[in-house]
Amino acid sequence: MASRISGILSPIENLYMAVVSAIPLKQMKVWVSAYFHPVDAYNQNKKDANFGAVAVHLILIVLLGWVASVLQAAFEPNSLALSSRLNGIIFSLVYLLIAGFIVSAACWVIAKVLGGKGGFMEQTLALALIYGGYTVIAFPFAVIGGGIGFAFGAIAALIALYNLYVMIKEVHSLSSGRAVIVALLPIIIAVLIVMLVIAALGASSGSRAI
What we know:
The chain is mainly α and 210 residues long. The protein contains ten helices and no strands. 86% of the residues lie in helices and 0% in strands.
């Protein structure tokens, strides 16, 4: 399945690889490779499965996403949007760096409960590579924004989600069903928490109005 997907997307891969090859940041080539060939990219970069290397990956990914948001805001008539994003870089770096390790910890615990064999840093590296690949692929769509940007960004996210499943299966030597659980359960839990928070805020606002 993975080889078929990468085969269909090979023209897109070639286009992105040509662009990132012209940028003097080796991690970007690794991310694009991980997006189209997750298992190969992971196995070729296992040496980076340590806190320092993974932290560098996450910091650079956050910076790339921040650049996309700043460029997108630059095209908006509201100057406050651009100002807020320019001022939010430090918060974004700290928040998303911590969040990256927390999300990986949640996945790792679930994987271990289901019999996963991979280490925490190996898995965190795998997730960082997938996240980086998605960030690069979605970059132009994030800048464009609007309905078109959202639609193409959503497609890129679905492919990244499939790649997450492939990576989890590879890192932890899990069956397909268990890998799906590890990939989806943290997302489901996060969505439920957000829904509960929104419901609680709505109920609180309603009671105050009364």
